[in-house]
């Protein structure tokens, strides 16, 4: 099957955008990821999927700790920066949660420790046990069909 067809199909599933962060050799590192999912409530587990070409892979494998930063609608530049898509220098001032670097202004900062790793094709799935959470009010940055979006209006559609 053609890669583009697969990516176009996966892009029809609209997601939020996260930046996965960790501290490696006393420096903060981040990587943009939309392959993020809640896994279990008891215990509280989440999953992120990291491509084997990403430099972040060795860092998370070594530290076994990471944070998920769920981006707000005004943080597109963070997403582009941590995906290597921003040419301009963007100075990032990290905060700390549970000893991990996290992004100020993220809708949620979630600190985790790796409890298992699963190699699947050209990605590795990292199951993270949630250690701490910090929330902020705001609207999400969305990713759909390979482009960024924001909510047109915040309208809750009830059943
Ligand atoms: P690096 O080149 O090491 O880092 C990426 C960028 O982050 C660089 O520009 C670097 O300067 C910057 N950076 C890192 N740390 C810091 C710091 N402390 N201060 C300032 N800048 C810093 N890939 C996946 O594997 N899984 C996904 O789920 C996924 N989802 C994505 C979703 C979206 C919307 C996008 C745009 C990309 C996604 N990617 C995903 C691709 C991934 O973000 C890129 O391939 C990424 O560049 C790979 O990271 P790296 O560790 O190899 O890059
Ligand atoms: P795109 O059209 O490539 O992405 C649409 C969707 O396809 C994504 O939301 C994701 O679900 C899927 N996808 C894309 N690349 C993938 C990969 N290598 N492995 C597994 N699933 C993948 O959107 P775009 O704007 O061209 O993406 C920008 C860059 O970020 C591209 O280089 C893309 O490969 C990368 N990206 C990677 C992942 C991932 O590794 N899981 C996810 C999103 C984007």
UniProtKB/TrEMBL annotation:
Origin species: Psychrobacillus mangrovi
Gene3D superfamilies in UniProt: Electron Transport, Fmn-binding Protein, Chain A (2.30.110.10)
Domain Flavin reductase like: start-end pairs: 10-150
Nuclease among keywords: no
Keyword Lyase belongs to the record: no
Keywords, comma-separated and alphabetical: Oxidoreductase
Phylogenetic lineage: Bacteria, Bacillati, Bacillota, Bacilli, Bacillales
Matching SMART domains: Flavin_Reduct
TM region(s), chain numbering: none
UniProt protein name: Flavin reductase family protein
